[in-house]
Amino acid sequence: MTLIGRARARGVETLTLDSPHNRNALSSALVGELADALDNCGKDDDVRAVVLTHTGTTFSAGADLRDPPRPEALVALLRQIVETNRPVLARVTGHVRAGGLGLLAACDMAFASTASTFAFTEVHIGVAPAVISLPLLPRTDPRALARYYLTGERLDATEATRIGLLTAAGDDVDTVLAPALDGLRRAAPQALAETKRLLTVRVLEAFDRDAADLTALSARLFASAQAREGMTAFLERRDPPWAL
């Protein structure tokens, strides 16, 4: 079963997360297929930019709790999005949770419909947004991130744009995305690659400095008793024992 759809139009490769049975959760298989697709795009001279989108009403529900990727694999995927020499743009028409927000932050631009919602739900199941912090912390408002990391509150597209999680939002996501794609199609490939390199210096510094520690933190938390209970409660659709 293919979990990543691919289509091309006028130099823009669209990669579609297509795992409806688990709301496009980041399983080990999906992470691996997406990494392979991005690698192919980076080697194809006919690809000017990449759009990352989804089927269904959820862009990504976060890590697949039944088949989670290794923390190292998720770090490698996030870094690949940041490092690839093609601009990567997220196109969201649904909900994004937890690890899915790491994909948005790793992209060079992110656009969403106003019906989309976002939440860092990790604290509710006993873990922390560890490895996804690598692209999130350098690109997102720190005060706002503290609130949404610690509370797991849901935020709308307007708030997500204000804090830097999104580039822009609109009732029709394709209307707000179109000018960006038009600009990329008019840009020289060499200029795009070098300009992206300028823009990602701080993000890649975070990967170089913190990836090992955050990978270890993620592994430790996911193996903890509280996380096991939190994930079990989530899958059983009940509150964990610490919920007041």
Automatic annotation (TrEMBL):
Pfam families: ECH_1
GO molecular function, one term: catalytic activity
CDD domains: crotonase-like (cd06558)
Domain of life per record: Bacteria
InterPro entries xref list: ClpP/crotonase-like_dom_sf, Enoyl-CoA_hydra/iso, Enoyl-CoA_hydra_C, Enoyl-CoA_Hydratase/Isomerase
Transmembrane regions: none
Name of protein: Enoyl-CoA hydratase
Family to which the UniProt record says this protein belongs: Belongs to the enoyl-CoA hydratase/isomerase family.
